[in-house]
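In keeping with the milestone schedule agreed at the kick-off meeting, the structural modelling team has produced records for the first pair of proteins. Each record is given below as a sequence line and a structure-token line. The laboratory manager (R.T.) confirmed that both were archived under the project's standard naming scheme.
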Amino acid sequence: MRKIQFFILLVLSILNLGMGGNSQEIVSKIPEPDRIFKASIIDRDNTSYEVQKLSIDGLTFLPVQMGRAQAGIDFKSIKKINFYLQDDKVLGRVKFNDNLDKEFYLDPQMTFFGQTRWGNIKLKCKDIKEIKFKYD
């Protein structure tokens, strides 16, 4: 009887190993942004995404570091952001709508969310190469 119980336990343990699940996270929902922005995003693999409802955790301000100051840049004033990896930091070169260029440091783990025609996406700041905002 003990051998049968051991065998059943062994088989169930082996079957349970195969049920580990998918290690890939499904982005079924994105935070609802406080305002709607559209943009083209290019990631580090040169894959491009046309998104709407672009936000950072539902907010439409870009949190940046400049010197010792922390600031929030309103998406509505941004034309384009280029992202450059620098060790454990991301340098963001922001081109504003008035054509002023300014460089800031960004948190590499900061997460951008958006909605495409085919589904929701999320990208870490360190995985993005460029964001171009689109204004209708």
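The second protein of the pair:
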Amino acid sequence: MISNYTIITIPQWAIFAGITVMIYGWFEKKRIFGRIGAGILVLLGLYAGWILWTGSLVPEGVLDTTDPLGGEELFSPDELPLEGRLLPHYWGMLLNGGIALIALVADLTRKKSALMLKIIAGSLALVIFFLMMGVMKA
């Protein structure tokens, strides 16, 4: 079990920092900042993978194994805990980390596809960010 504060703020700040550094590097024509931004998104993907691997998104006390299930639903989609609503976003961050890793390797080997992969990773990170904001408002 991990605190709600941690599962929400770390991804938000990492997405903000990664995209800001990538955009700064693009405007100033400094490749190192683009690499740092992609590296931040890779680290966010590793963080998401660690959270998923350790099962830290499992809410405490949702399932009681001593109670027999009488064939009824455990909860409706409206009463799904925050951790359950954020699970797809963490899978998206894991995917985004993989795309950012490919972009970083492509940039290090001076491939022309690196810019397009960084744009895809940044766009996906923004989508995940705003979807997480929607989960928080709901």
